[in-house]
Amino acid sequence: MPAARIGFVSLGCPKALVDSERILTQLRVEGYEIVPDYARAQLVIVNTCGFIDAAKAESLEAIGEALTENGRVIVTGCLGANRGEVDSRFPEVLAVTGPQAYETVVNAVHRHLPPPADSNGPFEALVPPQGIKLTPRHYAYLKISEGCNHRCSFCIIPTMRGRLVSRPAGAVLQEAERLVAAGVRELLIIAQDTSAYGSDLGYPISFWNGRPVKARLTELCWALSGFGVWIRLHYVYPYPHVDELLPLMAEGKLLPYLDIPFQHGSPEVLKRMRRPAATEDILARIQAWREVCPDLNLRSTFIVGFPGETDKDFERLLQFIELAQLDRVGCFQYSAVSGAAANKLPGAIPDAVKQQRYDQFMRTQAAISAGRLARKIGRRIEVLIDEAGGNGAIGRSAADAPEIDGRVFVDGAGFQAGDMIQAVVERADHYDLWARPESSQ
Ligand code: SF4
User: Fold this and answer.
1) Backbone Cα Rg of the chain
2) 73 with 81: CB under 8 angstroms?
3) In the predicted model, is pLDDT for residue 206 greater than 70?
4) Which of 281, 373, 360, 279 is nearest to 326 (CA)?
5) How far apart are CA 269 and CA 278, in angstroms?
6) H helices then E strands: how many in the chain?
7) 157 lines ligand 1 (CB under 6 A)
8) How remote is the CA of residue 165 from the centroid of ligand 1, in Å?
9) 120 CA distance to ligand 1 centroid (A)?
């Protein structure tokens, strides 16, 4: 019997990417063939993002394109949580399901394109033990929880993805073990709020390889460090127990890297944003972390032009980034997201002011980033190779997460993606490094 052929479009953040991987793994186990073009697909699934209006627009465009090019479309993901919007715009869509609704989306596929008749056994063998991954073979995202218990005023994720639901530590470690066995050399730990891991369950103990492990970030990180691969932490909020991770970083058990979305430097704006841990004395914490782990790399994102942001607030933000000396920073101009509480806040900032603040912010941070990278010249660093060619390779250091941070350009031939090499930094700009290889492993 010919296979049932599915096309898949995956949009959005690493959390959505993990959802796509799970759906694709399940469909492949059931015998569906995943094809890379609209023409051969008998049905197309679009996994959407609805975080900000620009992402929504991109998702709507992708649904429209799939309908034009193929005609039989199932929509899932964050935008699917707001099904009225999809239905009213595209009534011909076959089904709409929300994020993490793996079963619902697979059931919808069954309804509109039944799986091949003998789908209950032989197809297991077509799926690698680690499942289908959309990342290159040498790194993978490991999602430790779904949902979020916070209510940041600019964000509608909790309405779309629901309250925090953590995975048992044993299940996370099992998945990590399978990924490492399949050749993964870097695990990127993700969640909406990584630091809150286990708090919804009361930090229960589960078993992995006969050993008890608590579903709590420090204990989980400690156990993950036993795999001997890079462990990188994303979406961390600076709760007090984050301090416990720094000694692990200083000992080389975790990458000395924290991705903490601070979003602003003014306490008043943070209060209006209803940010978790908004009142912590962040600058003092950063200083203390660097004392424990001098090589710590800090990545963050900020929003400029949030409603009511005064010149003084913005000055405080600039002062904050000057003092914090963060390594990697992303910045967004505030834009309203339909359904977010912040839409009701007074004091909308004119676009021209947002742009001017954004430009000033980026100029300030570019100089800081360049200074941080320049300090690395002459140092030996470990580089994980992402792409290799005849004359050189492109990789990343401990300071660089894939897609969002900088790269390390390495001279020389004979490298392969996934190689871990030692290299000496020779040059830097405000974003990337250039290095001479010393040895490879
Ligand atoms: S912590 Fe705030 S920004 Fe992040 S997902 Fe939760 S509500 Fe949204």
Assistant:
1) 23
2) no
3) yes
4) 373
5) 9
6) 12, 20
7) yes
8) 14
9) 39
